[in-house]
Write a structure and sequence with these properties.
Blueprint lengths: L1 E9 L6 H8 L6 E8 L5 H11 L4 E6 L4 H11 L2 E6 L5 E2 L1 H14 L8 E10 L6 E3 L10 E3 L17 E4 H6 L12 H6 L7 E14 L8 H6 L1 H17 L1 H5 L2 H25 L2 H17 L1 H8 L2 H6 L3 H19 L3
Parallel strand pairs: 1-2, 1-4, 2-3, 6-10
Antiparallel strand pairs: 4-9, 5-10, 6-7, 6-9, 8-10
Amino acid sequence: MKLLSIVIPCYNSQDYMAKCIESLLPGGEDVEILIVDDGSKDATAQIADDYAAKYPSIVRAIHQENGGHGAAVNTGIENARGLYFKVVDSDDWVKQEAYLEILDRLREVVGGEKVLDMFISNFVYEKEGERRRKVMHYRHILPEGRIFSWEEAGHFHPGKYILMHSVIYRTKLLRECGIRLPEHTFYVDNLYVFEPLPYVRNLYYLDVNFYRYFIGRADQSVNEQVMIGRIDQQLKVNRMMVDYFIEKKAAIAANKKMGKYMLSYLDIITTISSILLIRSGTQEALEKKKDLLTYIRQKDRSLYRKLRYGLLGNCMNLPGRTGRWISVEGYKISQKFFGFN
């Protein structure tokens, strides 16, 4: 059995996937790299097959009909042979020194007294056209260099969230929690980091800048204008997160720190949905914003009150044009400060 399975979802990735794969090969025989060609129409499939032929004990190429990022991650989970599981997008890459250190730490904890469910490390925004690299770290929030529980975690400030780029999950946990990401849907990475959380008991944080998150291509799914154009998919994911939070309400309430974190994460996703609808600037978008709040209120009034009347909810629901302008300006400041989009 391998120590770590790494899935690379690929769709028409011929121009950049080699950099991603090459950055992962130094993991050697402890790692398996699953290149999932999601119905690409360029040379992606051939590149995947070439790497599998050259590194048959490390790389596997899997070809499937196009189903989107979520379908590729699902395929990775189904086919993984590693004890732990990581998603690396085909236009991103990893830093070798941090990578090897993470593998060393994973080897240390395997077979120990406590079963490690979730491994967290830093990621770096590699933003197109910018020299300054914004590092997302969790210092002073999470204990470093040891296994810990949710009760030992500190407060996550706005902008300090555990994203797909930060996390390695225990493979069996992903299967036990029954996660199945929707197909042909963008922004499912939020579901990927959200749904397993009620099953996570033991965590480990290593303060190394491991994952390099490339951001800035005009066609990238996190480009703000692209997100506005795909707002219905953002709203779909937002509603699925609301549904899941309500479904797992008892388990979430049983772990106070974890529940507080999940509520805060749901709050920021709902805030992003709201601000994108405001930024769209159409009456239809403002109706969708109202519909989202109505959906949450009808599902669970207690959750609605927490989201609507919390700090972020109040900031995103200021009345009139002036209120919407203030919300947008606050969002722009957050963009500059935290480096997203």
